[in-house]
Amino acid sequence: MIAVHADDGEQIVGIFSGLFLSFKSWLGGTELAPAGPAVPVAAPQRPVEIPAIVQRAEILDQRSRLCGYRFGATARHPGAPLPETARVAALLAARVPEFAQQRMALVPLSFDAVTFGRQLPLLAPHMLLLLDRRHSELSVEQLAGRMAALRESGARLALRGVALAPEDAPLLALCDVLMLYPNEHALPAFQSMVRQLRLRYPALKLCVDGLESWDEQRMCRAWACDYFMGPFLTTQDRADGEAKLDQSRMTSLELLNLLRTEAPLTALIDVVKRDPGMTYQILQWANAPAQGLGTKVTGLQQAFLVLGRNQLYRAVTVSMFRLGAGSHQERDEALLEVALTRARFMETCSHLPQTQRDELFLVGMLSLFEVLLGVPMAQLVGSMQLSEEIREVLLANQGPYAPYLMLALLFERDKVAAALEQGQRLGLEVDRLADSGQAAFQWAQQALHHAAATG
pTM to 2 decimals? Predict the structure, then answer.
């Protein structure tokens, strides 16, 4: 990783500005607040009622971009069956087809769906309907007929439960993406299967699910697989070795400390002046059109007064994910998307006072700093001015914020029943959890979309 300097800062400052303005427009206010890491957020708009809990799992491509999600839905009450019609209704209410206008959405559907036209409202340019042969007793001819009918309706298909057996050839010929699971095979057999698939079906995309580490992801990428799923994204990459913070991130950490400890404005300016890239970035934020200023801001003192301490704290925290360069840029962007969703969910799901909810947001963002920076959490926490409650959860998974971080992680890992039990222990209603989770995802998508549009 390298520092961001004035001559290359222009390439990324548009992204920073967009994301900062997203925060500013939603958080409100520009005054230089006297204390606290973040200004209280406005109450989120009440989302559309979704008759289920919508689940998501990240999908990364060969460049480590978060190119899409697998979406699913489960009943809000554990043990209650959720018919396919209700699952489709939940995904429609969650605006998954709208998401699939731009990015991949992998949605499980039964082979029977085409008989009732259930796929029709889901269709979108980047929608992939996931069919699982293991859940159907139809013959290969019948399955192929239904897959052909789905394709004729405009659907693109992913398939699970199919092997290289000759009788499966008609099914492989009709699918766009094949789901593979390394834990279902011995490693040499899995490698051989991938090689044979590549030889026989060169146009077929291969999506590998269940990857636990970046080493496994690199192995499958070397074998020319296309998409990768599993918890590896939020794990530390051992290939990073002894990572060191670049100058821009060190400056950002120091600035965060000063903002949090109510340091005088002169101290903030002295730190920023040491990094030309940070100086350029803050001036660009202050001069963004959305600020509505009649004259150009040319000095840091005026820029700090325009931006405000609290909004700047959140914006600098977010910018930590975008200060890296080189081979990790796409991965860092994927981590930012996960971190924003996690942080917003933790902030909005609880009944805690606003000050503590602000700290929950910070916990959600900081919880991925160790993965992002490749630096031990103890070293990071030791270099930052944080409350004892935040230090406890980041270092020992203890304290009053630890249950909320665990709640977010359980949902992310698709352990819905355990997450609902955790929520019950925290006194959180199922409906609140479901609505907060979906609203947090939409909020993060809007923030990133706004950043891209203004970049």
Answer: 0.84
